[in-house]
From TrEMBL:
The chain crosses the membrane at residues 47-66, 107-126, 133-152, 172-192, 204-224, 257-276, 288-308, 328-347, 359-381, 387-408, 420-439. One of its GO terms (biological process) is nitrate assimilation. Its main location: membrane. It comes from Ilex paraguariensis (yerba mate). Keywords: Membrane, Nitrate assimilation, Transmembrane, Transmembrane helix. The keyword Transcription does not apply. This is Major facilitator superfamily (MFS) profile domain-containing protein. Belongs to the major facilitator superfamily. Nitrate/nitrite porter (TC 2.A.1.8) family. Residues 480-507 are annotated as: Disordered. It is found in: Endomembrane system. One of its GO terms (cellular component) is endomembrane system. Residues 42-442 form the Major facilitator superfamily (MFS) profile domain. Residues 482-493 have a biased composition (Basic and acidic residues).
Length: 507
C-alpha cells in the first residue's frame, strides 16, 4: 500500500513537468528543440543571454583596425585592453557563483547583465586609449554570466544529461565570440553605406550589442525560473529550500582541492579560447595581409565551432560516463585537451594561410570540446557549494586568459606566432594535474574507488555538520547522491551500495 502511495506521489510530481524528471525534479532528458518550462526554457534563456554578453565583450576586436586608427592605439594599448576585457571577470565569476548559491541564477544573471550594459553603450563615446581600456574592462564583467548558465543547467538537469546541458548552453553562448566577428563588420558596413564616416560608423555599431544585452536581461528576469520547483525566494520563504550560510559554502568550496585543479586546467582551455578571440582577427590581418572582412570571417570560424564542439564535449562526457563513470570523464578530458595543445603548437608553426586556417579549425574543436568536458565534471565536485566551484573554475578561464596575454601577446617580446606555439605548450603542461583528481566513491584516472567502501552519501554528506543534518538541511544532497550513482559506470569498479542492498529514495 505504501509503495503504491509512493509511486502515485512520484507520478503526480512528474505530471507537473513536460520532461521526465528524477527525485530532485531535474530533467532526465535533454530536448534541444523544446521550450517547455521550466527546464528547457531555462536552457534557452541561459545560452541566449550568455551569447549576448559574449557579443558585447568581443565587439571591439573585429573592428580594431578602425578603432586603432581613430584612437591612435599602440600595440601595447591594444594588448592591455584585451587583458582588461577578460581580467575583470576573474573575480566577477567567483562573486557570481556565490550569488547563485545564495540568491539563485535568475536574479544573479539578470542583475549582472543590466549592471554591465551601460559600459557597452559608452563604447560609442570613448576618445582615448584609457577610455577604450575602461569600457572593455567593465563590459568584460558580463561574461561572468557563464557561471550562472552552468549553475542553472546543473540545477535543472540530472546527472545523466548534465554534461550535455552544460556543454550546449556554454558552447552556444560562446558562439557570441565568433558571431561578433561577423556581426560587427557587417553592421559597420551597413552604417557606412547609409552615409556615416568610418570613424562614426564603428561608434554607432556598438548600440546593436548593447540593445541585445539589455533585452536578454529582462527576458531572464521575467521569463526564467531558478529551479524546477520555483524561484529561490519563494522556496526559501516556504521552507522548501534551506537558506545557506556564505561562510560555510565558501569554506567548503575552497577546501576542496578538485575545484583548484579544474580552475587550473580550465584556464588553459577556456582561457585559451578567450585569448584567441582577442588576437586571431588581427593575427590574420597582419600576418597574411587579408582585408578586414576576410580576417573577420576567418576569426569567426574559430568561435563558431562552438555550435558543435563544446556541446560535443559535454555530450561525449555523458556518453563515456555511462560506460566508464567519472573515471571516463576525467580520461576523456585529459586526452582531448592535450590534443588541443598539440594543434595549438602546430598553429604557431605553419606559415601558409590555408594551412593556418585548417589547423586553427581543428584546434578550435579540441580546445572548445575540453571546455564542455570540464563542466561534465564540475557538477559532481560539490553539491552544497556548486555555485562557488563553478565560479572558481570559470574564473580560472579568465585567469588563464590574462596570464597568457600578459606573457605571450603583450608588447613585442614575442611574435604572435611564437606566442601561439608557447601557449600550446602551456595547455599540455597545465592539463597534467587532472591525474591527481580522485573521488573516493568513484576513483580517479589511475585508481579505483576507496577500499574503505565510501559511498556517494558519505561524500556529499561530509559537506554538512551534525547539527545541520538534524535540522534536515542535507536532504537535497541526499537526493543528489542517489541520482549521481550513474557516475559509477558499467565497465569499472564502483563503490558499494548501502549495506541493505537497497538504493534509497528520498521524499
Amino acid at each position: 500500500m505504501e509503495m503504491e502511495m509512493s509511486q502515485a506521489s512520484i507520478d503526480s510530481d512528474q505530471r507537473k513537468f513536460a520532461l521526465p524528471v528524477d527525485s530532485e525534479h531535474k530533467a532526465t532528458e535533454f530536448r534541444l528543440f523544446s521550450v517547455a518550462a521550466p527546464h528547457m526554457r531555462a536552457f534557452h534563456l541561459s545560452w541566449i543571454s550568455f551569447f549576448a554578453c559574449f557579443v558585447s565583450t568581443f565587439a571591439a576586436p573585429p573592428l580594431l583596425p578602425i578603432i586603432r586608427d581613430n584612437l591612435n592605439l599602440t600595440a601595447t594599448d591594444i594588448g592591455n585592453a584585451g587583458i582588461a576585457a577578460v581580467s575583470g571577470a576573474v573575480f566577477a565569476r567567483i562573486a557570481m557563483g556565490t550569488a547563485c548559491d545564495l540568491f539563485g541564477p535568475r536574479l544573479a544573471s539578470a542583475s549582472l547583465i543590466l549592471i554591465t550594459t551601460p559600459a557597452v553603450y559608452c563604447s560609442a563615446i570613448i576618445n582615448s586609449p584609457v577610455s577604450f581600456l575602461l569600457v572593455r574592462f567593465f563590459t568584460g564583467f558580463s561574461i561572468a554570466t557563464f557561471v550562472s548558465t552552468q549553475f542553472w543547467m546543473s540545477s535543472m538537469f540530472s546527472a545523466n544529461v548534465v554534461g550535455t546541458a552544460n556543454g550546449v548552453s556554454g558552447g552556444w553562448g560562446n558562439l557570441g565570440g565568433g558571431a561578433t566577428q561577423l556581426i560587427m563588420p557587417l553592421v559597420f558596413s551597413l552604417i557606412r553605406n547609409i552615409g556615416a564616416t568610418k570613424f562614426t560608423a564603428w561608434r554607432i555599431a556598438f548600440f546593436i550589442p548593447a540593445l541585445f544585452q539589455t533585452l536578454s536581461a529582462y527576458a531572464v528576469f521575467f521569463l526564467g525560473q531558478d529551479m524546477p520547483d520555483g524561484n529561490f525566494s519563494r522556496l526559501q520563504k516556504s521552507g522548501d529550500k534551506h537558506k545557506d550560510n556564505f561562510n560555510k559554502i565558501f569554506r567548503n568550496a575552497i577546501t576542496n582541492y578538485r575545484g583548484w585543479i579544474l580552475l587550473l586546467t580550465y584556464g588553459y582551455c577556456f582561457g585559451v579560447e578567450l585569448t584567441v578571440d582577442n588576437i586571431i582577427a588581427q593575427y590574420f590581418y597582419d600576418r597574411f595581409n587579408v582585408n578586414l572582412h576576410t580576417a573577420g570571417i576567418i576569426a569567426a570560424s574559430f568561435g563558431l565551432a562552438n555550435i558543435f564542439s563544446r556541446p560535443g564535449g559535454g555530450f561525449l562526457s555523458d556518453i563515456v560516463a555511462k560506460r566508464f563513470g567519472m573515471r571516463g570523464r576525467l580520461w576523456t578530458l585529459w586526452i582531448v585537451q592535450t590534443l588541443g595543445g598539440l594543434f595549438c603548437i602546430l598553429l604557431g608553426k605553419v606559415g601558409s594561410l590555408s594551412a593556418s586556417i585548417s589547423v586553427m579549425i581543428v584546434f578550435s574543436v579540441f580546445v572548445q570540446a575540453a571546455c564542455g568536458l570540464t563542466f561534465g565534471v564540475v557538477p559532481f565536485v560539490s553539491r552544497r557549494s556548486l555555485g562557488i566551484i563553478s565560479g572558481m573554475t570559470g574564473g580560472g578561464g579568465n585567469v588563464g586568459a590574462v596570464l597568457t596575454q600578459v606573457i605571450f601577446f603583450r608588447g613585442s617580446r614575442y611574435s604572435t606566432e611564437t606566442g601561439i606555439t608557447l601557449m600550446g605548450v602551456m595547455i599540455i603542461c597545465c592539463t597534467l594535474p587532472l591525474f591527481f583528481i580522485y573521488f573516493p566513491q568513484w576513483g580517479g584516472m589511475f585508481c579505483g574507488p576507496s577500499s574503505e567502501g565510501t559511498t556517494e552519501e558519505n561524500y556529499y554528506m561530509s559537506e554538512w555538520n551534525s547539527t545541520e543534518k538534524d535540522r534536515g538541511f542535507h536532504q537535497a544532497s541526499l537526493k543528489f547522491a542517489d541520482n549521481s550513482r550513474s557516475e559509477r559506470g558499467k565497465k569499472v569498479d564502483s563503490a558499494p551500495s548501502p549495506s541493505n542492498g537497497i538504493l534509497p529514495t528520498y521524499a
